[in-house]
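Hello forum,

I keep getting stuck at the same step: I have a sequence, I want structure tokens, and every attempt I make locally crashes halfway through. Rather than fight my setup again tonight, could one of you with a working pipeline run this one for me? It's a single chain of 316 residues.
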Amino acid sequence: MAHSKEHSSCNGHEHAAHNRSDKNGLSFAFWLNLFFSIVELIGGIFTNSTAIIADAFHDFMDAGAIGLAILMEKISGKKRTATFSYGYKRFSLLSALILSTFLLSGSIGMIVAAYNSFVNPKEVHSLGMLWLAVLGLAVNGAAFLRIKNGGHGHHHHGHSHGHNHNSESIMLHLLEDVLGWTAVLIGSVIIYFTGWNWIDGILAIGIALFIGYNAVKNLLNTLKVLLQSVPENVNIAQLKSELQNLKGVSNIHDVHVWTLDGSYNVGSLHAVINNNSATAKQEVMNNIVKLMQGFNIQHPTVQIETNENTCAFVSC
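Reply #2:
Ran it on my machine without issues. Output:
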């Protein structure tokens, strides 16, 4: 059973700096969302706006999510132990799972609240809504730019997408907030000029459906990783056919590829070779590992077999 030692050729210092700026961005976003959700809740009660209360809930959930993400990041960066032989990378999936479930239940709550606002219509203070929307745009826009420039300015290592889900998803949240506030801004102007209070409920439902849709999407992606599906950035059919064409390989079987956390992929396979000499073995071994790494598999494990019968396991 041979193993490739070549894990990450990434420059350590740069990576550390990258992670640091990312963490600062995350904690900034956490405090911002927490503080702002309180402002929003008070504003929502004063303006009588369901949409703003819904968004306050959304921001509060985001703050919780970011707090969870920071915590899980700390844990998932830990080294391997005897108990967790793959390390703690999967812990970040846990926060994604909890967060998506949170947001999904939240969006259902918002739809119920919006429905009630239709049943018992209430006067909405559109001018207050307008000012809150302007404030919301300014705050979320600033946070988005801060995280974008903080953690995402320099992606020139092989991990273009590998900047795990957390900061990516937080940027997405902030962008969604900006869009949500734009809608509230337009809605408040319409209510101001027409007095159509029901627009507030429509906005609340729109925000809720949007959050719910994204939560479901995230939930499904996280479950795919947990259920060890083949990562989207690995073409397993092409990998098999290229492995089969390598010089000295007579058969490839038992190919498994999965991902630890969505960015660190693990692969294993058995290769039957027709030449048993040590140098031939070594050469085939090196070629297979190199090929697997070229297919986005950061952690390849290869078992070399000399003829069809050496593999006595049932799994073959």
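The CA atoms of residues 146 and 220 lie 29 Å apart. If your local run keeps crashing, start a new thread with the error log.
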